[in-house]
Each structure stands twice: as C-alpha cells, then as structure tokens.
C-alpha cells in the first residue's frame, strides 16, 4: 500500500482521510453536517447545574459552599432541611431536598406498604417545608426488593405516591424517584431500570412526580442514555452525573460523552437542574470546573 489507493467510488484514500479530518474538526467546533454536506454552527447547551454535597463531604461547609458559588454553579444537591440555610446564605438553591437523614433511606422505600407510614410521613412533612424554603424537588426511593417481585413493588409504590401526590401538586414541589444500579453499587435495589420508572410514572400520572435520571447508574444497567433522554425526557425531573466506570470525574478516563448527553438534555426542553455527583480523585475544584464546562456551563 502506498497510501494513495482508489476506492470503489473513485475516492482516493488520501482524500478520504482528509474528509474525515475535516469532519472531526467540525465536531470539535460544534458543527452539524446535514444531508447535503453543509455544516451549521450551533450554540453550546445551556443547563442549570448543581453540585451534590455528599461526594465532597471532606470539604468543610465554610469552604464548600463558597467554592460552589465561585465556580458559577447555582445550586447544591441532596441537602437535608437543616442544610438548606447553608446554601441560601451563599445565594444558592437546594436543587434536591432529602426528606430524612436515615441511614437506610435507599433500601427502605415505597415498594413495601409496611414502610408507608414512615416514608409517606417523611414526604408529607418535607414537601411543605421545601416549598417555604424555595426547594423545588424532594427525593424519594423505591427501595430494595427483599424477595418481592417487581409487579408487587410497583403497585405498592403507586399506592404510596397516590397518597402524597396531591400535596406535592398543591405545594408546587416535585417528588423525584431515583433509579439506581443494582449491579455495582446498590445490590437488590428494585428501581434499577428506566422501564420500571416509566411504569411508575404512567400509573401515578402527576405533574409533580418525576424520575431522577442518574446517567451513571443507568449507563451501568442499560446504556443507550441519549435515546432514553430523547424518547422519555418529559418524565425526567432531575439529572445526576458521574463518570463510568468508577463514578469519578467527567474526563477522558471514562466512557460517557457528557457533552453529547448535555446537548440531548437541552434539546429535550429540560428546564430543571443537572447535578454533578462524581467522587473526586484529584482537585475537586478542577474536576467541577471541567464538568461545568463540559455540560455547557461556559
């Protein structure tokens, strides 16, 4: 081979390589190429971005909240009610409130009717408090299977949410059900696929009950992230990010294309919050700055 050979359509290898190089440059510049081969520039996605508190728990409050503000984020995610004022003092929103600090919050959820007095009670208390504090969302969990089948668990979740959805609608606060992976991080968790979450959304059918789509968790369980966002984004009220594998920074060491994912989220018309939930392996400030830019934060 001399590097010049001619293909079946009369295109030289050198010409083909040159065309590919131009196309790759176009992608880097944010150019879309249409059927006629004409490129057009498009703006970077604009998403409201937040930072989850727990992965950065080693940073004291008096350092963490000012850092988030300084980096240009508008909110902090997964705060309990006692922490909401810490965000407000820095002019930050709590983008997702946690109704309790129970250690078994994830595994003890709505999929068991025996848990409803506890779980529904927590939501009934947290939702009015969230409205008063300007917290737009409150998280809830499906819970672990513990021998229950998915149909029975789904039915129990619907019953529990039906008890509290009217309050959420009245207060204007959205209950977000997070889907988690059961393969790596949360063994036995029932709400581990988007399909389960969608069945729950269809059954409850409330504008104030939505999914929390964690890109990291759903990449592990099912992949096809952008297609899911395009097809079902209207049921998603909140997003979490982290790199996979490892749940670390959104950098070149992981397999997810967060620039493309952010574009899909923005194109879906999403107006809520995208919160970064990665565990830092290097400078937290550096990782957060990179994540914000990658997801359209400028």
Estimated helix fraction: 25-40%
- Return the CATH class of the largest domain: Alpha Beta
Residue windows where pLDDT falls under 50 for at least 5 positions: 1-42
Label the overall shape: globular
Oligomer: single chain
Distance between the termini: 45 Å
**In what order do the strands lie side by side in the largest sheet?**
5-4-3-10-9-8-7-6
Number of H- or I-type helical stretches? 10
- CATH level-two architecture of the largest domain: Alpha-Beta Barrel
CATH superfamily of the largest domain: Divalent-metal-dependent TIM barrel enzymes
Structure in words:
By secondary structure, this protein is α/β, with parallel strands linked by helices. The chain folds into two domains: 1-42, no CATH class; 45-294, Divalent-metal-dependent TIM barrel enzymes (TIM Barrel). It is 40% helix and 16% strand. The protein has an eight-stranded parallel β-sheet with strand order 5-4-3-10-9-8-7-6. The protein has a two-stranded antiparallel sheet with strand order 1-2. The longest helix has 22 residues, at 150-171. The chain starts with 12 loop residues before the first helix and ends with a helix.
